[in-house]
Write a structure and sequence with these properties.
By secondary structure, the protein is α/β, with parallel strands linked by helices. The protein folds into two domains: 198 residues, Rossmann fold (3-Layer(aba) Sandwich), CATH 3.40.50.720; 104 residues, UDP-galactose 4-epimerase, domain 1 (Alpha-Beta Complex). Helix content is 38%, strand content 18%. It is built from ten helices and 13 strands. The strands form four sheets. Strands 3-2-1-4-5-6-11 form a seven-stranded parallel sheet, with helices on both faces. Helix 8 crosses helix 10. The longest helix has 21 residues. The mean pLDDT is 95. The protein binds nicotinamide-adenine-dinucleotide. The site of nicotinamide-adenine-dinucleotide has 29 residues, from helix 1, strand 2, helix 4, strand 5 and strand 7.
Amino acid sequence: MTVLVTGGAGYIGAHTVRALRSSGRKVVVLDTLERGNREAVIDAELIVGDVADQGLVAKICGDKGVSSVIHFAAYKAVGESMLEPEKYWNNNVASTEKMLDVLTEQRVDKFVFSSSAAVYGTPLSMPVTESDPTKPESVYAETKLAVEKLLGAFSQNTDCRLRSVSLRYFNAAGASKDNRIGEDWSSSQNLVPQVMRALLDKDFKLEIFGNDYPTPDGTGVRDYIHVEDLAVAHVKALDYLESGGETLVCNIGTGSGTSVMQVIDLAEKISRKKVPYRIAARRAGDPISVFADARLAEKKLGWKAARGLPEIIESAYEWHRTHPNGYRRGN
Ligand SMILES: NC(=O)c1ccc[n+]([C@@H]2O[C@H](COP(=O)([O-])OP(=O)(O)OC[C@H]3O[C@@H](n4cnc5c(N)ncnc54)[C@H](O)[C@@H]3O)[C@@H](O)[C@H]2O)c1
C-alpha cells in the first residue's frame, strides 16, 4: 500500500511527502526534477521521470504496490501559460490523462489532485464556495479545471471507478517548521518568496501590482495558507478516500483575506527590516480579492487551517535567511 506522489520534489509536494510519512504511509515520488529539487525529497524514494511515461508509471505501480496517487506534477506559472499555452495543455492535461489511463489499468482507484482557486477567476462574491461558477482567466486555470472534469469522467468508468478529491488551493506559502524545506524564490513568482527576496537580496525591489483596488489599503487581497496545513489536507483527503469517500471538489484556504500591504507590514515587523518596493500597474486577470469559504473541507475531510499569517511569514523568513541561495545554488 504505497502512495505515489507525482511532483513530490516540488514545493507543496515535498511538504506533503513528509506529512504522509508522518502518517505512517509508504511513499514513492515521481518527478522530472525540471522544476523540483532532489534535496527537498526527505525520507522517501525518488524516481526521476515523467508522469506521461506510461511504461514507467505502470512499472512503479506494479513494483511498489501503489494504491493511491497524489498528483502535484504540473507547470504553475500563470504568465508563462499565456505565452506558451500548448506546453501547459500538454503537461498539465494530456500527460495527466496518459497517467490516468495507466492507473485505471493498474486498478489504482484513489486520486488526490492539486487544483487551484484560479478556476474561479474573479469571483462574484466573497468568500468563494465550491458551487460558485468557475470562470478561468488563464490557460493555467483552464488546465486545472480540465483535469477536474477529466476526473469526473474517470469516476464514471465502470471497470475501475477512480474516486478523487480535487483540492482547490488558495495561496500556498511558508516553510517547514524544522526549516529544512521552503519555496525557492528563483522558481516562484508568488508574493511571499518575492517579499523575502526583497528583504534579503539587496539588488532586488518588490513590485506591487496595483494599489488602487477597492480594498481597505488599495492592494489585492488573497487567502494565504501555510504549506504545512496544506500538506495535512492531502493526508486528510487520502483518509477520506480510503474510508470510501466519493469524488469531491473542495476549497483549501483559511477563510480570511490578507492584502499585499498587510503581508509586507508583517514581514517588516518580523524581520525588523524594510521591504523595498515600487508600485506597478495592475496585472491583467488579477482578481481584486479572493478568499475561501473553507467549510466543506472541515465538514467532509475534517480539515481546518491551524496556522496563520505570522507562522507563514516567520517560517518563510527563517528558511530564506538560512538558505540565501535556495536549493540550486548551494549554501
Ligand atoms: N503554489 C501554489 O500556491 C499553488 C496554488 C494552487 C495550485 N497549485 C498546484 O499545486 C501543484 C504543486 O505546486 P508547487 O507550488 O509545489 O509547484 P512546483 O513547481 O514547486 O512543483 C511541481 C513539481 O512537478 C514536477 N513536474 C512537472 N511536470 C512533471 C511531469 N510531467 N512529470 C513529473 N514531474 C513533473 C516539477 O519538476 C516540480 O518538482 C501544481 O500542480 C500547482 O499547479 C499550486
